[in-house]
Structures are given as C-alpha cells and as structure tokens.
C-alpha cells in the first residue's frame, strides 16, 4: 500500500533538492577530510562540528551503522558522527496527524521510518526538512553524491592506517565491506582484503540464494586470485562459522542468509 | 526498519542475475503494446515492462518491480522521469551514461 502516492522526496537539512545548479556548484555538503580523522588514537569518532555535517547517505548505510552501534541516539558512519543526513527516496505510508507527520522512505536500498515533530522512537529519524523531487536527475545525483562522499571518507582513512600497517599496503584499495566486521581480523591488511573479497563473492546477489552454494573453484575463477590463498581464506571462514558446507565438501554457502 | 527487500539497480545485462527478485531500473519507453511497455534499457537492450501505467513514448521511466525473466519486469511502481532525464549531466560535461542511459535524444 503506497499511501504517500509514491512521490520522491529528499529529506535532510539545508540542501535544496529542487535546484540542480546549486547541487552541482559544490556547496558545503562534502565533509572536509579533517572531520573524518579521529582526534585521538584512542578510537571512537570525532565530535564537535562534525555533528553538523550534512551527509548524503543511503538507508542501508544508516541501518548498518545503527545496528553496529550500541548507542541508538548517536552513531558514526566512516568514523564521522552522523547527525543530519540527506536521503532521497519514495515516500510510502504517509500518515498526517495534528502533532506529527510520519512516513516510510524507500530509497531502493531499504526502508526507514521518518517522523516529523517527534523523535521518541529510537529507530526513527527526526525530519528537519523535506522537499519533493521535481528534477529526477537529483535522484541520480544523490546516489553519486553518496558514492563520492563514501569514497572520500574511506580514502581519507589511508594515512591513518599507515601507522598500523605496512607501508606497502597503504595504497591498496580497501573495499568497503559491511561483513568485514563479522569475522576475525588476521592483523594483515592484505589478508583482510582477500578475506573481504571472498566473502563478497559469497554475498553476490547472483549466488547468495543458491541452495547448494558455490564451489571454491567458482570463487577462484570469479576473483582471479591465487588458488592456495583463496582456499586458506575459505578454510578460515569455515572455522569461524562465516561460511559452511552444504551438500558435499565442495560446496559452500555464507551463513548470512542461513 | 526493513532492509529485507532492497531493489537492485540493474541494466538489461545484469537483470538475469536477479530473476524473481526486486529490481529497479530506468528505461526509455519505445512503444506501448497494451498492458505492457517496451523500453530501451540503460545499456541499449529492449526490456518488456508489465505495467498498466501509460508513460508517453520517448519518456524515461523508472521501474520498481520483480524481474520475471532476463527481459521482463513486472512493475510495482512506475515513475515518469520525463523526456529529458539525464540531459543536465551531459550539459555539465559529466558522462554518466553507463549509469542510466546510453543515449540522450
């Protein structure tokens, strides 16, 4: 039931979604690199003006961050404290009351409940501003903006990692993988990357629902990585329970979709 | 919170990886054959969209729906993106054709 009429809406503060020129002008939406680097090496994320940063995000990014955080009212994405966010998606199930307006926003990556005038529910977002999308290029632009900001923020971590990993690994592309936190780290950057790649092969939409899973040979062929290393990584994942054997010793499946 | 049925952004080439699942794409309507629309996908192939929505020929249309096979989507929601979707991107000298459409009329 699409009570909201299926309109596209952009939520967030300060950003004009109707004027494409202003969006392309650069504006102040990109969090500066300095905001992405934690102020201390003791972990956690930096506070202060970061909380005012308007981050273009997808619903999935928010869901993943919210689930990873114990503190439901305060969480970080890419080590940047998230406060005001910008989402673009379809408005569903809009309910207008005297005291508040609530609806569900579906941006294709997931759905999230949005409230205006109340923030009592821990899993809902308080809406600062909402605009109807009139130029549909704004949808394309929003998701490109999400990709751009995400890459900027993840790349800016590289200098930080330099102190903890070998110099040769600093420039290595680190694929963002939400599953990376679910299995134990080997302490080696390159190892983690292969580990992430292997898991991402198991989580590929094309194979994740295969009843019998996939073979090691499939993963090797898919990733074009050395056979021995892939076999070792898969063995490690089996031992920690991230993947398991299905019909025989050759087929494996991720435990994610159990 | 529901992330159980994300709609994968697809073109015709990768549509067959998502048969039976929820997908999202943009097509340029080529003709209306009564009950279903035929549109050109972002990578230049023809896709059949089962939908009762009447979107004018040559308009770009976003489709949310279930992939029935590698060429057919059963639409749940169609949004008319108008006849000039994507043009501003080219106006700014940014070629994003692989993301959404192969040609701009």
From TrEMBL, chain A:
**Pfam families for the chain:** RPA_C
Task: State the residue spans of region: Disordered.
Answer: 24-48
The species is Dichanthelium oligosanthes
Q: What is this protein called?
A: Replication protein A 32 kDa subunit B
Question: Where is it localised?
Answer: Nucleus
Chief localisation class: nucleus
| Coiled coil feature spans | none
Q: Please report which protein family the annotation says this sequence is part of.
A: Belongs to the replication factor A protein 2 family.
- Sequence ranges assigned to domain Replication protein A C-terminal in this UniProt record: 150-249
**GO cellular component labels:** chromosome, telomeric region; DNA replication factor A complex; site of double-strand break
Automatic annotation (TrEMBL), chain B:
**A GO molecular function held by the record:** DNA binding
- Keywords, sorted A to Z: Nucleus
Would the keyword Repressor be found if you checked this record's keyword annotation? no
Q: Please classify the protein's predominant subcellular localization into one broad category.
A: nucleus
Biological process, per Gene Ontology: DNA recombination; DNA repair; DNA replication
Q: Name the GO cellular-component terms.
A: nuclear lumen
**InterPro entries reported in the protein's UniProt record:** NA-bd_OB-fold, Rfa2
Q: Which Gene3D superfamilies match?
A: Nucleic acid-binding proteins
Keyword Nucleus assigned: yes
Q: Domain of life here?
A: Eukaryota
Q: Please state which protein family the record places this protein in.
A: Belongs to the replication factor A protein 3 family.
Protein name stated in the entry: Replication protein A 14 kDa subunit
């Amino acid at each position: 039931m699409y009570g909201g009429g299926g309109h596209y809406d952009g939520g967030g503060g300060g950003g004009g979604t109707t004027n494409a020129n202003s969006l392309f002008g650069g504006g102040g939406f990109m969090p500066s690199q300095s905001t992405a680097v934690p102020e201390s090496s003791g972990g956690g994320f930096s506070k202060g003006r970061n909380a005012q940063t308007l981050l273009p995000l997808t619903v999935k990014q928010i869901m993943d961050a919210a689930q990873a955080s114990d503190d439901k009212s305060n969480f970080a994405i890419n080590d940047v404290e998230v406060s005001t966010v910008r989402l673009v998606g379809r408005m569903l199930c809009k309910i207008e009351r005297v005291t508040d307006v609530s609806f569900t926003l579906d941006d294709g990556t997931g759905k999230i409940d949005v409230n205006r005038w109340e923030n009592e529910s821990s899993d809902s977002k308080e809406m600062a501003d909402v605009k109807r999308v009139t130029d549909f290029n704004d949808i394309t632009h929003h998701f490109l903006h999400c990709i751009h900001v995400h890459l900027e923020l993840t790349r800016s971590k590289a200098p930080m990692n330099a102190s903890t990993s070998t110099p040769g690994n600093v420039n290595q592309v680190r694929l963002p993988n939400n599953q990376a936190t679910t299995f134990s780290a080997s302490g080696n950057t390159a190892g983690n990357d292969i580990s992430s790649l292997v898991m991402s092969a198991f989580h590929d939409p094309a194979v994740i629902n295969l009843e019998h899973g996939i073979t090691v040979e499939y993963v090797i062929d898919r990733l074009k990585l050395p056979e021995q290393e892939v076999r070792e990584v898969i063995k490690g994942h089996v031992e920690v329970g991230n993947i398991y054997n299905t019909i025989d010793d050759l087929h494996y499946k991720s435990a994610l979709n159990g | 919170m529901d992330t159980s049925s994300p709609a994968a952004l697809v073109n015709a080439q990768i549509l067959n990886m998502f048969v039976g699942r929820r997908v999202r794409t943009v097509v340029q309507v080529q003709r209306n054959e009564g009950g279903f629309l035929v549109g050109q996908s972002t990578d230049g192939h023809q896709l059949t969209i089962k939908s009762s929505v009447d979107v004018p020929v040559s308009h770009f249309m976003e489709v949310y729906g279930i992939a029935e096979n590698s060429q057919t989507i059963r639409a749940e929601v169609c949004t008319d993106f108008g006849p000039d979707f994507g043009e501003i991107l080219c106006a700014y000298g940014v070629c994003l054709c692989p993301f959404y459409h192969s040609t701009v009329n």
